[in-house]
């Protein structure tokens, strides 16, 4: 039993008495749930005990005009130097988005591990990431915004049932320097930032598809094409992706003035052909997202995602008031294949399976936006160029 679990067991057994344990005032009534006990225990862990990425490049100013935003996901901190990360560090860009699996904190070199209350493996993984030279170069070169996925959340494919999510959130926010930002003031890791003057404003929305998400419906045929791990939830199942508070927050964000809106989701939004984690596993929630964009009349939405260990570009008419587009960028150094046979009806060209990253390139004068996939040497291997009018921007 770890030291953290010993402390947890002690907390659960405490009655109200006139002493203190581990800095906790226990004049208060005994915690009536394991979650409350964990919160009390986690309150005793100082931020100084959590790993940090360091300050990094300063965020763009509120009036800065963005033209190039890079996107990446799936970086195994235990592997050697990443050519993709080196290419990213050498790019000229305004912002770099890490959209999940930024470390593999639920496994070590021997395979998956069960994180315990102290999240020792997760914390070690972030410390290892901070020490990587390629990460340090990227951190110094580009301002960053981040979302998490399951492997940097602490458990494979986990959602709100993960018992140690409270500390996982603190580890995430402390590492990325978000603990004193707005995101550090609420449950979950979602946040947004806007850049540029009216007419050239980019809003970047980082969703949290872990902290509040319901358990998914397991497959009835493990590994079968199209239902590899999960089946779509039945209509009316009440399974949730974002949680009530985040849904309300997102509605408010979509009503903020912006020309281009980049919505980052760690898992894919548009495709439905596969049975891995994705919004397609919660069809009612997927439709709710599309309906919310319609309701708020939010123009200029482009979805960004990671997770899949292959990059894809998608385009589909009619699901939004304008054509919907998505760029999936994955992975930075955890490629499982050299080619992808997957083909969704919405897909623009073949997927790209080797190591890669993505780029959103905005030409404000020409009023175009390019969605690009680059190999680990920085060469464009897939792209889809759009006009502003195609995404509802007047």
Number of helices: 9
What's the helix-strand series? HEEHEHEEEHHEHHEEEEHEHEEEEEE
Spatial arrangement of strands, main beta sheet:
7-4-3-16-17-18
> What share of the residues lie within helices?
10-25%
What is the CATH C level class of the largest domain, in words? Alpha Beta
By secondary-structure content and strand pairing, the structural class works out as: alpha/beta
| Total E-strand runs | 18
Main sheet: strands, sense, barrel: 6 strands, mixed
Number of domains: 2
Care to describe what's here?
The protein has helices spanning 3-13, 34-42, 83-90, 120-131, 133-141, 150-153, 165-175, 244-254, 283-296; strands at 20-21, 24-25, 68-72, 95-98, 107-108, 111-112, 144-146, 191-195, 202-206, 217-218, 230-231, 260-264, 301-305, 312-316, 324-328, 356-363, 368-375, 380-387. With 394 residues, it is α/β, with parallel strands linked by helices. It has 2 domains: 1-44, no CATH class; 58-391, 4-Layer Sandwich (Purple Acid Phosphatase, chain A, domain 2), CATH 3.60.21.70. The strands form 5 sheets. The protein has a 6-stranded mixed sheet with strand order 7-4-3-16-17-18, with no helix packed on it. It has a 6-stranded mixed sheet with strand order 8-9-12-13-15-14, with helices on one face. α1 packs across α2 and α3 (83-90) packs parallel to α5 (133-141). The longest helix has 14 residues, at 283-296. Residues 1-22 have low confidence and may be disordered.
Keywords, please?
394 residues, six-stranded mixed beta sheet, alpha/beta, Purple Acid Phosphatase, chain A, domain 2, 9 helices, 18 strands, 20% strand, 23% helix, disordered N terminus, single chain, 2 domains
